[in-house]
Amino acid sequence: MAAPKRVRSASSSASPVAENGGSAKKRARRSPTKEDEDVKPNIKEEAEDDDGSDPRFRSVSTTAALERDREHTSFPHEMEQTPLARLYDAMRELSEVKAAKDEKPSKDGVVVYWMRNKDLRLEDNTALSYASAVAQEHSLPLIALHIFSLGDYKSHDRSPRRIDFQLRQLAYLRAELDKLHIPLFTFTQSSERKAIPRILCEKLAEWNAFGLYANIEYEVDELRRDIEVLERTRDAREQGEGWKGQVEFFKDFCIVAPGELLTKQGKPYSVYSPWQRAWAAHINSNLSSFISPQNGPVIANPSSARTHPILEPMFSHEVPTSLPGFELAEQEKKDMERLWPVGEGVTEGIMGRFLKTKMREAKFFEPPLEGDGNEVENPKKDSKIAKYTEGRNRVDWDGTSHISAYLAAGLISPRECVRAVYKVVGGKEVPAGRDTGFGMWIQEVAWRDFYQHVLAAWPRVCMSKPFNLKYDGTIEWATDDDESKFEAWKEGKTGFPIVDAAMRSLKAQGYMHNRCRMIVASFLCKDLLLDWRKGEKYFMQMLVDGDLGSNNGGWQWSVIRIFNPASQSEKVDPNGTYIRHWVPELKSVKGKAIHNPSAALSKAEILKLGYVPPIVDHAEARKKAIEAYKEAAAQG
Ligand SMILES: Cc1cc2nc3c(=O)[nH]c(=O)nc-3n(C[C@H](O)[C@H](O)[C@H](O)COP(=O)(O)OP(=O)(O)OC[C@H]3O[C@@H](n4cnc5c(N)ncnc54)[C@H](O)[C@@H]3O)c2cc1C
After folding, report:
1. Pocket of ligand 1, candidates 550, 551, 557: which has the most ligand atoms within 8 Å of its Cβ, to mutate?
2. Residue 383 labeled ligand binder
3. 517 lines ligand 1 (CB under 6 A)
4. Record's SUPFAM superfamilies (predicted)?
5. Helix axes 346-356, 414-425, angle to 10 degrees
6. According to the 3-state scheme, what is the secondary structure of 495-538?
7. How far, in Å, CA of 597 to CA of 476, rounded?
8. How sure is the predictor about 172, in pLDDT bands with cuts at 50, 70 and 90?
9. C-alpha separations of 63 from 17, 134, 148, 282 in Å
10. Which of 150, 121, 113, 585 lies closest to 342 in space, CA to CA?
11. Would you say 470 and 633 are in contact if contact means Cβ atoms under 8 Å apart?
12. How far apart are CA 221 and CA 229, in angstroms?
């Protein structure tokens, strides 16, 4: 049997617990001072870690190394009671109870990698890589498991589009894993989502599983579910009844995981900019571990796995093509398949196009892969990413990567994104400043990490609570009589062209440009004075890239800003190309009037075009919103 491949997460060692302990913790606690920005990577120094062995290249083959890694993570006071801290506690507690892993694994046992909704890939996948190495070490076959939890999807407003995307990718992965004699087994939990830990542990017992390995999901419900799996396993070990195997959860979703960066005072960051500086310094002072792939590949099961009594029936198991209650209409399904393809080479194609081709005008309702044959000779200077500083602010240009759906569901790892950028720019550091398109883009990817950090440190944001507590229940939102305004917003019929264009683009393609997400969010909670949670929910139900952390963060951020839709429109779509595509009623409107037709045309003329007059007066609405927020702040 081949030796286990080396595995680890990008941020430090192979064990999830160790990643926050030992030297990683020391690094994370370094204060994010100005000097940190100037820290040059010292790869040699980093490679020689303080205990004499390099945790980044540690194999899982020695139990001793794993044991040493099981150092409890200490969270700052503010985070002690968070579900994430409790997950680490539960991992530690489980490791303290005599483990089944100390016993010889049963010859007919299996190893289980639990693939989540956010790590749908085979490459650079921390838990999968680890599970694969454990399977090799013990000469056991590997099973990939995926659970569809309809109750969770419903309660988290998961969009049918994102579910369709997930199912298509799983079907692709099933075929890829099959080539490696690894089955992908899925099951659907239709009701009672809270029963999943019990059902899972029963299945693990039935399969005689040696271990269960998965990547951490930072949302509260998911953390609670994982804590229960750990607790059930601990109880089983203590009572000698039930499934008693190994359980390990890994950091994987972020580049720098929640809990790793703390302020000088040892608290979680609540503000992005200093957090981002610490984030960039952390990456650049551990550069070698971020820019070279660290997770080993998935190793094939022996072909005899096909006749293993547990695995054999799994090989004929198909991934469903839809889930009850989340079906797409036929045309919508076709559109989603065309716009958001999955399969071999797709993420490489999207990133390659962003990193190596020339900026062009936006082609609406086209897949991000749509080739333009515009490869540039000097990507450092002429590529889309090189022009991102301007490109990101123009909705009529093809100026962003369109990788969000793929990152949200984990078809590509965020580390791979950083590596791809680094490959183009080279140098001593991963760029992370606002002065170049490359650095600016990396900063955007950092926002994704930041919002996971917020979820983990302030779990109330998962429970419909505002991050800023002074707005908790203190804003007087417009009443239900205004439901028609919410409908107009959803349908793109508010009479504000940029808002309507953006909302229609969301409905048609499950995606909206970032600038427009900010504009329509501000419009909902300021111009219409409707509760931002209604908008947050609707976005989740429609987006193909819907992600609780980024969506919630984006909404909470927008709540504190007021935009003027007309002047924003002039900035982001100066020629009105975007508007004319999505709001064809306005095709004939010339010049600047496209941004604010009611300033140039009478109500009758607007209606004659088939468009709608504005449903609110922006200047008045603005005044009202400022008042409402002022009052709320005074009360809060
Ligand atoms: C109200 C609102 C809701 C949002 N909801 C989501 C969501 O559900 N899922 C989601 O992935 N993004 C969300 N965003 C962030 C952002 O709009 C999208 O990530 C971006 O538009 C995706 O397009 P892109 O891949 O071309 O981005 P690029 O500009 O190419 O950025 C690259 C990647 O960085 C990350 N990123 C960029 N901007 C942000 C940001 N502001 N916050 C967090 N991550 C970011 C994304 O993963 C993105 O794919 C939201 C923003 C707002 C204002």
Report:
1. 550
2. no
3. yes
4. Cryptochrome/photolyase FAD-binding domain (SSF48173), Cryptochrome/photolyase, N-terminal domain (SSF52425)
5. 40
6. CCHHHHHHHHHHHHHCCCCHHHHHHHHHHHHHHCCCCHHHHHHH
7. 30
8. very high
9. 14, 11, 33, 29
10. 121
11. yes
12. 13
Ordered domains of the chain (ranges, CATH): 16-49+68-463 (3.40.50.620), 469-635 (1.10.579.10)
Asked whether the beta carbons of 415 and 255 are under 8 A apart, the reply is yes
Closest Cα to atom 21 of ligand 1: 514
- Going by alpha carbons, the residue nearest to atom 4 of ligand 1 is 551
Angle, helices 532-542/548-559, rounded to nearest 10 degrees: 150
Report how far ligand 1's centroid is from the alpha carbon of 563 (Å): 19
Residue 551 CA: nearest ligand 1 atom is 5
- The reply, when asked if residue 366 is annotated as ligand binding, is no
Ligand 1 centroid to Cα of residue 513, in Å, is: 8
CB of 157 closer than 6 A to ligand 1? Answer: no
398, two tokens: 């093809």
Is a pLDDT exceeding 90 seen at residue 564? yes
Distance CA 473, CA 205 (A): 46
The burial of 89, by beta-carbon neighbours within 10 Å (0-12 exposed, 13-18 middle, 19 or more buried), is given as middle
User: Is 545's C-beta closer than 6 angstroms to any atom of ligand 1?
Assistant: yes
Give the pLDDT mean for 463-470: 83
Count Cβ neighbours within 10 Å for each residue of 424-442 and write b for 16 or more, e otherwise.
Answer: ebeeebbbbeeebbbbbbb
CA distance 129 to 8: 8
How far is the C-alpha of 371 from the C-alpha of 348, rounded, in Å?
13
Query: Lowest-pLDDT range, 4-13, 131-140, 173-182, 614-623?
Result: 4-13
**How far is the C-alpha of 8 from the C-alpha of 20, rounded, in Å?**
13
- Cα separation, 150 vs 147, whole angstroms: 9
ipTM: 0.99
303: its two tokens: 């072909």
- Tokens coding 41: 């990577």
pLDDT tens column, 387-413: 999 999 999 999 999 999 999 999 999
Place of tokens 């997400």: 517
Ligand 1 mean position to 160 CA, how many Å? Answer: 19
pTM for this predicted structure: 0.90
